[in-house]
Amino acid sequence: MGISSTSVGPLERLRGVLPDVEIAALAPLIEEIEELKQRRNAVVLAHNYMTPDIYHGVADLKGDSLALARMAEKTDADIIVMAGVHFMAETAKIVNEAKTVLIPDLGAGCSLAESITGDDIRLLRQRYPGVPVVTYVNTSADVKAESDICCTSGNAVQIVESLGVDRVIFLPDQYLGRWVATQTKVDIILWEGSCIVHERFTGAELREYRASYPGIQIIAHPECPPDVLEEADFVGSTSGMINWVKRERPKRVVMVTECSMSDNVAVEVPETDFVRPCNLCPYMKMITLAGIRDSLRDMKHEVLIDPAVAARARVAVARMLEVRV
Fold it and tell me: What's the predicted TM-score (pTM) here?
């Protein structure tokens, strides 16, 4: 899986997504990125939270965390530019150690990933000897290296149950862990991490949407607090939410997650009215078209992982990829 083979160019893909005047202004930058990709045999992997100019424009491969991990593993490009946050770039490097992985902005971190360290896991193992550690992919390579298996929001329940045990340590997202606990009989030991985007939503906010928009459908990401999930008509991962909208084609919907995702899905489901609660991820928004161009032009910023850490993290990620959902 290398550079996208679609015959439709990035400027054409943006027609109807952005105003024509904005496309014209962006055209020189997009064309420069496309030329650099061809010259360097590079691909841009873009998370669903990227802005539409990236997601519908220069991205070659796009999806949620699990999809990006699988794509990074299979691409035959020499260079991967991660239009996402740092842990995603690390994951791409972990599954593809021979490739050069670049991230346009080193500041594109993650509050959730920063909530736990490898040392924390070592202490948890002392406290709960023999209990396997299931780690969300929204974590650093150092944390993955201390884990037994990774998961995403899309496969967390299946991963937990695949271990065949009565109890697991699940980290670092407390809300995702609490939701998983409602879906399985496995005892879940939680860590108190959270996402700065999803933790800001409230159940009261969703009740206001229902009052203002009778008949609206509410779908929420499981990283949201329990009172939010109780109000939702559907709870699912990033890909699960997208698939639900495409399948159900609701007249009006609110997607309780990072708001750029609504912008991107709305392009594919134009008959649905998206009410957009805009909780932006400040880290995702550090990735820009200019940053992608600079990263490709100057070959910065390369993501490097200590080989010993990467080897151990690769085991946890590989175990996750082996579990099919």
Answer: 0.87
